[in-house]
Write the structure tokens for this entry.
Amino acid sequence: MAEAIETTESVKKQYIVVKIGSEQYGIDISYVDNIVRMQKITRVPKAQTYFKGIINLRGEIVPVMSVRKRMGLDDDVFTNASRIIILKIEQQGALGIIVDEVKEVVTLGADQIDKVAYNKKVDKDTFINGIGKNGEELISLFNINSIIGEEIE
């Protein structure tokens, strides 16, 4: 099969749309390794408040963090819809993040994403790097590196 060379305007990315509270967020699917149901999280002493602990995922120990707590929101309330999204981060290995619900996968082109302008010195804790428009819905697109930036050295 011959591959077509695409311009940046026509490149589309897939995002997993998750809910945290009443808001929708998109996670670049290239970071997502797995989505698992909530399970027992073993606490780790003296960890940051947003670091919930670790889980054993098929023999692999995976640290788990609360995106809600990381963003300064209320503590997690676990329901049947709560999920742990396992992210594969090159330098750091696997990391789980807790979300309230996984909704769908959407494909967004560059023309459907508005970049968020921010001052790097002032807004180093900006967790959003763009807003995706999917029909009438707006989806805040996570900057995964700023979310996971501090908890694993």
About this structure: Confidence is low (pLDDT under 50) at residues 4-9.
